[in-house]
Amino acid sequence: MAFLYRFLFFIIGLFIMTFGVCLTIKANLGAGAWDALNVALTRWVGLTIGTWVMIAGGVLIIVNAILLRKRPELLSVITFVVIGSMIDFWMSNVFGNLQGGHFIVKLGALILGLAIIGFGASIYLQAKFPLNPIDNFMMAIKKRLSVNLMVAKTIGEVVALIPALLLKGPIGVGTIIITFAVGPFIQLFFPYFEKLMQKLEA
Fold this sequence. Notes:
Blueprint: H1 2-26, H2 33-45, H3 49-68, H4 76-93, H5 103-124, H6 133-145, H7 149-166, H8 173-201
Helix pairs in contact: 1-4, 1-5, 1-8, 2-3, 2-7, 3-4, 3-6, 5-8, 6-7
């Protein structure tokens, strides 16, 4: 029964989180670094944003294995395939024809998207399933370079930000807001779902 709860938290959390990711992209004030890179690759090469999420995930699994000098975390494939599929679902079925409005509307959409990302991530993390490769990349940098989590996260974001800028991805003020605000939103919701999971597993 505990596994079922964890699985439901995993799927529901990612379903909600990816909705928030798509909302931040559609707010058109600047996406998160990795999302901006995926959007840029979609514009230049083709394929869907979700497909690029999966391709980037596959590359990062190999990079993480090299950095950590261990076998690739193949179970992470499940996570990035689910994330990529859900992003394509939301972009095609909900956000396909959505157009940006005034700055206040865009800012509201961005902040709402961030809150939804934090809400969904707080649920998905309770499952304690394999992390998505971007999160693992941050942890690999932390361990390999012996830096703290904040520095590792910054390095990880810059790795995506540079090619996103070169490819003229959607980088803007929203990118900065997302970089610094996602963590606090996750921290806001995390304790509630942690307690809920503990009650369900008791």
